[in-house]
Amino acid sequence: MRILQSLVAFGLVALVAGCGGGSQGVAPPLGSSLDAPGPAGTLKFTITVPKKVNPKTKSYVSPGSKGLVINFVLGSKKSTKTFKLEKGAKGCSSQAGGLVCTISISLAPGHYASTMMVYDQPTSSGYLLSAQLSGLSYTINAGKTTTIHPTLEGNIASLKFANFPAGCIGSSGNTAFKVPASDFDGYTIAGTYLQHIGLSDSDTSGNTTLAVSGPDNPPPNELLSSFDTPSVAWNGQPLTGGSATITATAGTLTYQTASATLWAGPGDVRFDYNGGPSNYGSPQYQTVSPCANSSVTVWLWGAAGGHALGSGASYGGLVGATIPVTTGQKLEIVVGGVGGSTGNYSQQTGGVGGYNGGGIGSGCIPNSSCSGVGGGGGGSTDVRQGGSGLQSRVIVAGGGGGGAYYGGGGGGGGLSGAAGNTQGNYCVSSQPLTAGGGGTQTSGGAGPGSSSGSFGVGALAGPYCWITTSGDHIFSWGSGGG
Distance between CA 275 and CA 93 in Å, rounded? Predict the structure, then answer.
C-alpha cells in the first residue's frame, strides 16, 4: 500500500498540518501567540541510514530511507517539517556505517509531543518505511539544546516463514520458527513493528499449541518485534485434517499474510456426509501428507438405503484398502448420502436416491391405489485419484438398496451387492416378482425392463405387482444402491 499522507493510515489525522519543504534548521512558526519573547531552544537528533540492516538494532531505519517528516504539537498548535536524508543534504555525511544525518531544529520553549515518519522518497509521497507514532515527547528550554533518541518501528509490507519444518514431524515436541517481515523496499525489518503480527492455528483438535517468547514479553499469539521467536508444540495426538496450518497476519487497512503447514503423524482423518437432503452432498478433498510414507489406508462405508412401509433400512458396504500415493497429491473423497425413506400409505412418490449414485424408489402408477412406495437406494462412498470423474475412483463402498413394501433392499458389500427381497405372498403367479440385483464392480444392479443401473448409478425401482383378487391394487418396490 502506498501511503501518501504521513499519518492518515494510522488514525492520527489531527497531527498532520501539511508537509513543508522549507529550509532545514527552523520549523514553520507555531503561531504568534506561542512565539517566545526571548531566545528559542534547539531540538537535536540523529538519523543513521545504514548500508545494510543491523539485525541487533531496536530502532529501525531502512537502507532505502530518503526522507523524514516530523510533526510537532504544542498545546493546540501544530506544525510539520520535512527533511532530506540524502548525501549532500544539510547535516548529512557519509561514514563507514552509512549516511549519518544530524538534525537541529529551532523551537519555541514548551513541552512537545511529536510523531516521526521515514519514507523512501525525499518527501512523504513515497512508501512509509518506519515511524514513531507515540511516546515521543520532550521539553524545549530557551537557549538550550534538547537531544532526543527516536525509536522508529518498521512498517510491514510483506511476511514469510523461515526455519519451518518442510516434512513430517514424527514425534511430539516443540518446533521454533521465524516470521521475517520486510518493508516496502524489500529490506528485512529489525526491531519493533508498527503493526503487530498475529498468529493463528487451523488445527481444531487442541493437540497443537502456539507460543511466542521474546524480550518484550509478547502475547502467546503475537510478534511485536524481530526479536520474538514463535513456536508450535504438538502433543503427538492426531490433528484435524492431519496437519496444522499456521498463518501470520499484519496490517490495519490492508492485511499482509503468510502461512506454513505443520505435518504431524500418523493420524486419522474422518470425512462424513456433508450435504443436507440425501441427494445434495459435495466432494471433499485431502492433500496427502509427507507423513503418508507413499501410501494411505482407507476405510469406506457406503450409505444405507431408505426404508419403506414394513421394511427396515439396508446397510451399505464396508471396504478397506491401502492405496499408493505421493506427497502433495490431492485425493477427492465422495461420501454417499442415505436413501430417502417412505412410511405411509398416502405417499405417492418413491424415496429419493442417496447422493453419489443411489437409485430412486418406485412410486404409484397414476390413478391407482398404492399400498406403499419404495425407499431410495443409498449412495456409494469412494476415493478418487488423479481426477474427479467416475473412472478416477480407486476404491468404492456400495450403498444399500432401498426398501420395499414389506421387503427389505439388498445390502451393499463384497464384489457384488445383495439382491433385494421379494414378498411372493402378495402377488399371484401370473405376476411374478423379480427383485433388483446387486451392483457389481463394473455396473449397477440389474432391474427388470429398463430399470437397470449403470456404472456409478443404482438401479431404479423394480416392477410393480398388482393383486388381481382385489382390483387394481399396487405394491411398489425399492431401488438399487449406489
Answer: 70
- The answer to whether the peptide bond before residue 266 is cis (omega within 30 degrees of 0) is yes
Domain boundary among 104, 139, 154: 154
As a whole number, mean pLDDT of residues 454-463 equals 49
Cell reading at 9 = 493510515
DSSP state at residue 181: E
What is the domain extent for residue 390?
A: 271-482
| Mean pLDDT for the chain overall | 79
Phi, psi of 47 (to 5 degrees): -115, 125
pLDDT value, residue 179? 97
In a domain, 1, yes or no: no
Nearby residues of 143 by Cβ (< 8 Å), 6 or more positions away: 38, 39, 41
327/446 same-domain check: yes
Nearest to 224 by CA among 173, 151, 166, 281: 151
Q: What is the CA radius of gyration of the chain?
A: 37
Span 96-114, average pLDDT: 95
Percent of the chain at pLDDT exceeding 70: 72
Boundary of a domain, candidates 154, 188, 207: 154
Residue 21 CB contacts under 8 Å (≥ 6 apart), including other chains:
82, 123
Mean local confidence (pLDDT), 422-430? 46
| Amino acid present at 205 | S
Q: What is the pTM of this model?
A: 0.66
Give domain status of residue 3, yes or no.
no
Domain count, the chain: 3
* 8-state DSSP, 340: P
Is residue 298 domain-shared with residue 374, that is, in the same domain? Answer: yes
Are 321 and 382 within one domain? yes
